[in-house]
Design brief:
CATH architecture of the largest domain: 3-Layer(aba) Sandwich
Strand order of the largest sheet: 3-2-4-1-5-6
Shape: globular
Structural class: alpha/beta
Number of strands: 6
Oligomer: single chain
CATH superfamily of the largest domain: P-loop containing nucleotide triphosphate hydrolases
Order of helices and strands: EHEHEHEHHHHHHEHHHHEH
C-alpha cells in the first residue's frame, strides 16, 4: 500500500484529481475537510455527489450531523480506519482536503491538550475580554509563540492562555514536550499549483454553480433544523446566506461576497501549505496525475518528477 496526499487551495481541482487517480490505481480516498465531514451540507462544502464519486470509497464525508462537535483527533481516527481498510482490501490511499492543518498534525504529531479546571476557565474568559493585553502577556512571556501569531488571533491567543493557566508552563515548551508521535510515517506529498487569476475565475464559477444548485435553500434548511450556534454555520458560503436572510446582504451580491471571501481563504491556504510542509512536488493537474501515476506504479517509494 502507498499513501499520497494532494494539497491545494479550494477550487483547485483536488477532488477530481483524487477520484481520477483512485480509479486508475485502486485507491480509497480520505477527505480531510472541516465542512464535508457534515451531513446535509452538500452544496456549501462542494463535496462530491454520489455519482461524482464514481463508486470510489470516500471516508471522512457525511460522518457527523451539523450540531455535533469534532476536533482534529476525529480525523486521526478516520485516518486509522482508512489505513486499515486500504490494507485489508489491498488498495492504495489518497488523502485530500482543504483543511491542511489536520494533515500537518498527522505528519508531525499533535500536542496533548491539558485539562482545564472551572477556575482556570474563568480566568481565561477574563483575560480574553482584553485581547491586546492578552497578546502583550504572550509577547512578554513567550516571544517565540507571539512571533508566530497575529496580535488579533483570538483562537490562538485563547489556546495559549489555556496551556499557560492550566499548566503554569511556557506554552512553546509545553507544546514541544507533550507532542505525540506522528501518525503518518510514509507519505508522498503533492500540491496543485493554479495561477491566482485562474483560481479566482474558478472560484467565481463554482460559487455561481452553488447558488444555482440551491445553496440558499440548503442554508435555510440547516438554520431551521439546527439554528446558528453550530460552528459549521460560520463557514464561508453559509454565513453570507445568513447575512442575506438578515437583510444585510442583497441576493444579487451573494456570488460576489462568497467569491471574495473564498479567494481570501485560498490565499491563506497557499500560505499555510508553503510554510508548514516539507518540500514537495507542485504542478498543474495533468503534471501531478502523471507524476503520481509513476509513483503508484513504481516498485520503489521514490518520486520521479
Amino acid at each position: 500500500m502507498k499513501t499520497v496526499a494532494i494539497l491545494g487551495p479550494t477550487a483547485s481541482g483536488k477532488t477530481a484529481l483524487a477520484i481520477a487517480l483512485a480509479k486508475r490505481h485502486n485507491a480509497l480516498i480520505l477527505s480531510l475537510d472541516s465542512l464535508s465531514i457534515y451531513r446535509y451540507i452538500d452544496i456549501a462544502s462542494a463535496k462530491p455527489s454520489l455519482p461524482e464519486r464514481e463508486g470510489i470509497t470516500h471516508l471522512g464525508i457525511d460522518v457527523l450531523f451539523p450540531d455535533e462537535h469534532f476536533d482534529v483527533t476525529m480525523f486521526f481516527g478516520l485516518y486509522e480506519e482508512a489505513k486499515a481498510c486500504a490494507e485489508a482490501e489491498g488498495k492504495n490511499l489518497i488523502i485530500v482536503g482543504g483543511t491542511s492543518f489536520y494533515l500537518k498534525a498527522m505528519m508531525e504529531g499533535l500536542s496533548l491538550r491539558p485539562e482545564i479546571s472551572d477556575s482556570a476557565q474563568d480566568e481565561i474568559r477574563r483575560l480574553m475580554c482584553d485581547i491586546p493585553l492578552a497578546y502583550d502577556l504572550i509577547r512578554r512571556t513567550d516571544p517565540s509563540y507571539a512571533s508566530k501569531i497575529a496580535s488579533s488571533d483570538r483562537y490562538r491567543i485563547e489556546k495559549w492562555l489555556e496551556i499557560f493557566i492550566a499548566t503554569a508552563e511556557i506554552p512553546s515548551v509545553y507544546l514541544e514536550h507533550s507532542k505525540q508521535a506522528p501518525l503518518i510515517r510514509e507519505l508522498a506529498l503533492f500540491e496543485i499549483d493554479v495561477p491566482r487569476e485562474v483560481l479566482a475565475q474558478k472560484i467565481t464559477l463554482r460559487t455561481q454553480t452553488m447558488i444555482k444548485l440551491g445553496l440558499v435553500d440548503e442554508v435555510f434548511g440547516l438554520e431551521k433544523r439546527y439554528g446558528r450556534a453550530p460552528q459549521c454555520m460560520k463557514a464561508i458560503g453559509i454565513k453570507e446566506v445568513l447575512d442575506y436572510f438578515d437583510g444585510s446582504l442583497k441576493y444579487n451580491d451573494l456570488v460576489e461576497r462568497i467569491s471574495f471571501n473564498t479567494i481570501h481563504l485560498a490565499k491563506r491556504q497557499r500560505t499555510f501549505n508553503a510554510s508548514q510542509f516539507p518540500l514537495h512536488v507542485k504542478g498543474d493537474i495533468e503534471h501531478l496525475f502523471d507524476t503520481i501515476t509513476r509513483y503508484f506504479t513504481s516498485e520503489t517509494r521514490s518520486i520521479v518528477v
